[in-house]
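Running this now, will post back.
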Amino acid sequence: MFRTFRAAGLALLLAIAPAAAVAADVPPIAFTERTLPNGLKVIASLDRTTPNVSVQVWYGVGSKDDPEGRSGFAHLFEHLMFKATRNMPAETLDRMTEDVGGFNNASTADDFTDYYEVVPAQHLERILWAEADRMSTLVVDEAIFASERDVVKEELRQRVLASPYGRLFALYLPQASYTTHPYRRPGIGSIEELDAATIDDVRAFHHTYYRPDNAILIVVGNFDPAKLDAWVDRYFAPLKPPARPLPRVTVKEPPRTGPGVFDGYGPNVPLPAVVLSWQAVAAADPDAPALKVLDAILSAGKSSRLYNSLVYDQQIAVEAFSGADLPRDPGLFMLGAIMSSGKTVDQGEAALLAEVKRLRDAPPTDAEMAEARNELLADALRERETIDGRGSAIGYAALVDGDPNAVNTALGRLQAVTAADVQRVARKYLAEDRRMTIRYRPESERPPGGAPPPAPTPPKTVARYDGPVFTLAPEAERVRPPPVGEPIAPVLPRPAETVLPNGLRVIVARSSDLPLVTAELTVKVGAWADPPGLSGAASMMAGMLTEGTKTRSAQQIARQIESLGASLASGGGLEASSVTLGALPDTLPRALAIMADVARNPAFAAEELERQRDQALDGLRVALGDPGSVAGLASAPLVFAGTPFGHVAQGTPGSLPRLKPADLAALHATWFRPDNAILVLTGDIDPETGFRLAREAFGGWVRPRAGLPPTPDIRPQAPPRAVGLDLPGSGQASVNVLKPSIARADPDYYPALVTTSLLGGGYSARLNQEIRIKRGLSYGASARLATARTTGSFRASAQTKNESAGEVLDLIRAEMSRLAAEPAGADELTARRSVLTGGYGRTLATSAGLAGVLGDLAFHGVPLDEMAAYTAKVEAVDAAQVQAFAARAFRPDGASVVVAGDAATFAEGLKARLPGLEVIPVDRLDLDSPTLRAR
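Update: finished.
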């Protein structure tokens, strides 16, 4: 897993207070352990404060265990395990999780595959039953195999082939960095090897690795320990492990004997990149903590060495990153950069090597050591906010570190790392003569005759299987899931509020005893305030708040915030701007003072604007190479044409160079005032303390004598358009149907939420059912409703292979029409309402999520007690209201269509469906023009 810092607002800084204070305040995760006679390990962690429970099963099989010639098998099973068992028809697990207000998911890594659910606690027994059933009686037949293989191929196209840097990280980095160990193979697989797989191959893989003696069951949340033990014994203890021993990877990667260079190319690479990798250690190695601290020193936050050197000072990279990838077997240490426009991979390599040399030549400073340890401790603290985060931390420690107790002892080991340790591991592992350099450039720069040889033809079969084969039993013969238990009522935070004499509205809600506080300042100004011709002015103004004040430079802000163990970020959208702080209670007063300074006294220095502008322009170059991103950029100019929303909020290649410091200062002076702002504090803080700290930090913010200017009424009237954006060589097409939608104050707000949930609000929603589950045409299809103060927006979208773009568009529009044509069934409606209420409850479980909810209510002028009424209002929506809203707002007539991808493949089919289709090559796209086409 790579840590990155993305410039121009593309990442959130994480850091937590001085090392000694944090170490004392991070509570250990208490858990119990036992092992069943069949080898299944069971870990349970009780939390009486939540109404939910997380169930996780971690299997000791990952992509390193893929058979030779069948890369991607472990990941394929991540998909297959959600299909049918002997007793459960396909997608039953979604009915048992998503449809009751929970969720499920899974992930595949080199060393493990983990499956996890969060559900209301009364459903615990049913989930345990289901996990045992899919461990022991999974149905693997030709139809399921073919369907999920198609979905995996779409995931590969989306994450690897369509993403500008997907090939670099998913394919080239492991391929270049390992010669022998199976870590060299892409975890997601290859289309050729997936196509070559047989049903025998798949069944043999499952029978080999999916067994109780290769699994850990983890339960975290609100449960009765005695009942949990009884249910585990009832459902898991009868499972028998196969007689044959588990195969294990024993291959050892040989030491490097010299440096190497790997040249990789891609068809949609807007900016060159370079990555350096070295051989490192396994997760359990004594040197692992020092390498993690070294990683944080290099790339954690704006005061990190790589950001300061490559992004800020030299301005040769738009992004600089590092990673201590330390799996169960010896892994890698890497660092790299995505270069700025006009900069070369040679410049990047030289700058990266200079930073490595600095660490080898001299130890880091005490301040750097404290900040690095604090960043790592912050990750652990944030992870403990949720029950699924705690479960994941335990599972990772158990399977990768080899000891579940490492979830608690690892923090002490990080605290013990010294500056001398960091210098020692830099010298030991980051030797200049043992590095691998991966250079990544556009396909157009590949030398003549330099095409790589074709991959070897995969073997026709890798296994013969003669074990048990399961099929879905006739309904009368299936074992029924156990009943649902008694629900546990949630306890919601109770917000309190006041208004300071200067007009600042302050809201405080105590939500946790975990030592974290979130402070969010929302100001009612967004992209609608951009002056004509200056798209991105409000976004740049908001983003630059943390880039220097009248008394602090950008680097001083970063150092001071991180030395306090806080995070500080700012940014803007269509309607609002925000400054968000995360801090420990003990350091909150000092951190709030800095937050107030950046909100009230930004400098908008010319040199900082130039730096941020260059980074934003490079970010746009990257976005214009990705089909989903470029479709998103074109959305607002289509949906809101002719209104103050009808431009690209973050700016365009044409508008950003025109921005001047005076433009940003004028926006700030007009709109950043206390009577136009809302401050929310949540987490480990009580109202009395929150109000006092707000007065101390923001009480001196003077309200101007003049009243606020009027805000615009957004009423789009432009006719719909159909636009194809041509990205030659793109690995996928992004298909989007767009419409204006309702205001937050609309009486149909709650019917609108339920209608959107039915259409595209989750895995089991209609779009995903039709496009992914039934046809395997996409990795995922969804719909999103964004309400606003006057007019919001609606978007239904999916990414698919280019040749399927027309079919996917037909399916989206058909499902939009069906919602208006026929009422939703009672079970479906109940399920989609539960998705909304369950997700809302989980959002309130973190301090940041709660701050966002309260801030949004306040921004839209909705009473704060609406938070407590949300569930009842969602549950009150009926089928007639859904059908009526769909008829009003979701009919595809009047919707715009944007498809971005390789138009040579999709344009002809789309023109038959959309006679008015305009095809615009991406190099002719003008985001400032009403036509979107450059003259």
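The radius of gyration is 27 Å. More later if anyone needs it.
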